[in-house]
């Protein structure tokens, strides 16, 4: 199986405190991989290192075989590895369609002009509608983003990420703050996205992790405690002690 993203000896120190310690991680292409662990385990730090929002103290990161250790987030986005942003990245007063058009236009490095956007951006409509369909927002196409229910806002945020044509998506707690119905909605969406992409997510909701992930890496105190399928890791005594039984 081909490897999409790989970290070797990944280490991050904050003023002598080792938040991530010598982590080796391989994410196989086409899989959904989850990063879990108790609070303070180093998940967020690890995620920020992999997406290049933080520079590692030591270690290397490769994406599709290319060394991305020194690259900036925008550079790795161009290589096809994209991090999803929070809902706050959406323009609340624009419609679903307008939000995705703006994302498509930004992807091409064009500056956008809200006053003329509708006419100028309509050339992106077919492509934008494709992404809107993919995330299940077709019937909300002309709704204002602000008027969408919470789970649908997250779906829109994912659609704007898809506009960057990623082969790999990195999702930071995609289910944060969601009720059961929205969790189900976004789970289905992640499954659909992963049909032809690689997904790495940090997620607290263990039933979601169990349900969606092909592979799971458990971090504790900055180190890898276990790795495998949910069935495998949930039987590991160290994991039960450090995480599940906590
Ligand atoms: P998690 O996401 O698993 O809860 P984090 O990656 O946020 O864990 O944090 C891991 C450890 O690193 C924690 O002890 C946290 O206090 C520490 N840490 C994270 N970011 C910083 C920072 N910028 N400066 C100092 N310590 C940090």
TrEMBL record:
GO terms for molecular function: ATP binding. Signal peptide: none annotated. Keywords: ATP-binding, Nucleotide-binding, Transport. This is ABC transporter ATP-binding protein. It comes from Hoeflea ulvae. The keyword Iron-sulfur does not apply. It comes from the Bacteria. InterPro entries: AAA+_ATPase, ABC_AA/LPS_Transport, ABC_transporter-like_ATP-bd, BCA_ABC_TP_C, P-loop_NTPase. Residues 5-246 form the ABC transporter domain.
């Amino acid at each position: 199986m081909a490897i999409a993203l790989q970290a070797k000896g990944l280490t991050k120190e904050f003023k002598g405190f080792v938040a991530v310690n010598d982590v080796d991680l391989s994410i196989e292409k086409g899989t959904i991989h989850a990063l879990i662990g108790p609070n303070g385990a180093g998940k967020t730090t690890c995620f920020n290192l992999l997406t290049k929002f933080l520079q590692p103290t030591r270690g290397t990161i490769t994406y599709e075989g290319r060394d991305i250790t020194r690259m900036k987030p925008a550079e790795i986005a161009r290589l096809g590895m994209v991090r999803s942003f929070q809902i706050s990245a959406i323009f609340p007063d624009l419609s679903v369609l307008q939000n995705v058009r703006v994302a498509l236009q930004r992807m091409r490095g064009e500056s956008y002009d809200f006053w003329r956007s509708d006419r100028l951006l309509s050339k992106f409509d077919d492509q934008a509608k494709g992404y809107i369909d993919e995330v299940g927002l077709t019937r909300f196409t002309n709704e204002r983003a602000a008027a969408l229910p919470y789970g649908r806002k997250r779906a829109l945020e994912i659609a704007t990420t898809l506009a960057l044509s990623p082969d790999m998506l990195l999702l930071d707690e995609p289910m944060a703050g969601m009720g059961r119905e929205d969790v189900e909605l976004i789970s289905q969406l992640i499954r659909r996205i992963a049909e032809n992409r690689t997904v790495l997510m940090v997620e607290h909701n263990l039933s979601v992790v169990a349900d969606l992930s092909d592979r799971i890496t458990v971090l504790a105190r900055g180190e890898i405690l276990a790795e495998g399928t949910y069935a495998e890791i949930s039987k590991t005594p160290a994991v039960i002690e450090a995480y599940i039984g906590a």
